[in-house]
Amino acid sequence: MCFELPLRQGPRPETTECAPHEQVSQNSSAEIHALFKQKAFALPFVERCRSGISVPGAEALVLPRPHACGPREAFMIGREFAHVHPAYDGSSHMMLPLPAIEELIAKGWGEQHPMASAGYIPANAVMAFAPRDEAEVDVMIKILTTSWGFARGKLANPAPIQIHD
Q: Where do the Luciferase domain residues begin and end (predicted)?
C-alpha cells in the first residue's frame, strides 16, 4: 500500500481524552468544513446517514451492502466506515489499515482513538484532524479515501486486529 502524507504544519490540535472524542482547537471554518463534507460525500457508492456511533449531528459515510466488502475491522458499526463530526469540531473518525495509521500519526494528521488505545474498540480506529484550509481538505480526502478503499475490500491489513464486540 502506498500511503504517504505531507508533514502537517504547526502544533497538534487539542483533543479530549475520552468519549466523546472531540477536537477542541484548530477547528475548521464553516466554509472549509462544508467543502470537506462536499468532497467526502461525493465518493462513489457512499451513502450519507446519521452516525450510528457518534455525537448528535455527526454524519456517517456508509457503504451499501454490495460495496461493503472489506474486513470487519474496516467498519465502526454496521457499514459505517467513517463519520464527520459537526462543524464546531470538524474532525473525523475512521477505520484505517495499520500502515496508514503509522503514517497518519507520524506526520501529525491524527491520532488513535483513546478507546482503541484502551482496547475497547479495534486498534485501527483513528481521529483525523479537522482541515484548516483547502490544501488540508485535499490531504483529508486522501486519508478518507484510504478508509473508503479499506471498507470496499481494496486494501488489506498486514496483521489481524482484535475486534471487541
A: 78-145
